[in-house]
Amino acid sequence: CWPGSEDVVGVVQDAWTLVNAADGYELPTTPAQQMALELVRGAPLVQRANALRTSLDQLRVSWETGRVQFTVSRANCLGDAISALGNLPAKRWREPFFVTFRNEPGLDAGGVSREFFHLAIAELLDPAKGVFRGVEGSTYYPNDDFVVKDALQGHPDRVLTFAGRLLGKALLEGHHVPAGFNAVLLKHLLALPVSLKEDLRLLDAEVARSLELISAMGDAQLKDLALTFSVARPALHGARDVALRGDGCEEVCEGNVQEFARLRATADLGGQQSETIGSLVRGFRDVVPVALLLLLEAPDELREALAGVEALDVHEWRAATQLRGAFKDSTHVVVEWFWSYVASLDAAKKAALLKWATGSARCPLGGFAKLHGRDGVLRPFSLTSVELAQCAYPRAHTCFNRIDLPLFACKRDLAAAFAVALDPRHAEAFSMD
Fold this sequence. Notes:
- By secondary structure, this protein is of the alpha/beta class.
- It is built from 18 helices and 10 strands.
- It has helices spanning about 10-15, 30-40, 45-60, 75-85, 110-125, 145-150, 155-175, 185-190, 200-205, 205-215, 220-225, 255-270, 275-285, 300-305, 315-320, 335-345, 345-360, 410-420; strands at about 70, 95-100, 130-135, 140, 230-235, 240-245, 320-325, 380-385, 395, 400-405.
- A hairpin with a 3-residue loop joins β3 (about 130-135) and β4 (about 140).
- The protein is elongated.
């Protein structure tokens, strides 16, 4: 049977032993390890997600034991965070963070931190920063090591280790980050094997198709192409020729075309980004033990653990909601109007409502029942009634995943009030955090 979540760390650690990233990894060899691995891999996602959340919460340090407080500006969120936290020892990354945005009064009970992590990671992914580039499927993948060194002015390891820790910290705390990471990078974080043929399509379908065609060519066709073991790699300004082996001048022929295709694919999938990816992975694992990552079987699962689940199921959302005040009677007409209003929204507006109320536009891996606060305690989405005389518009408490909902006289008034409260020009005025 599936082990209890309190035992899952031991089960996962027994499942296999990872060797350092440069050498790959070993599969478990003993019968006990193989059985543990099969148990973990065979469990439904909802059980693995619950076990992951429980295990991560066990790693968190209580705020009474230690805390980290710092201030950042919105205009330079990532840079300010590096200045404030760049020398923070790895062991302190499991202490709670309390974030303040410069010149803003918000008290961080969780909502401010959620916004900080999203902004900082979005800044890291910005192609203008030079660390990541846009690839297939509107996703992002690290630039080649030489590009990142240029972009970060010779200090890539410090910045990228920090970025990896920031990503790991977001996972530890359950704060959602942008969903833009390419599946190949997520495979590296999970220590999953990368397929030169299949995974190259995830980065650049055109290059993958070209290599398939070239691999089937004979000498006459290859001679016409005049290929060598050198490739033009994207740089900050233009391109730079990089040798795939030797001095790069060797011509590609029928006898070596398969090796050319292998080296060309390897260059994209990690060969030219080994230092950059290595630093990100090391930083990530400083916060999240590699053994726990075995609970996630595929890149999409890690993406949803980091960024949340995009599809919002209103029925599930409602079922996981707590009702307070006059709404304790779950059949209260205003509650019915609210959920009817939510169901009428398109996907983008549902996401905007959820973000306004909780600080994240996505629901956690494991469902709405896994919404929680900064202390690791589950904080389900809640609706609290307020008298219309006290408040004419709904109010959000992102730190507590709560909406204060006035006792409107009709459904039309409710919809009109939310239209005002969710308007980007006014939304912040109706957030109490």
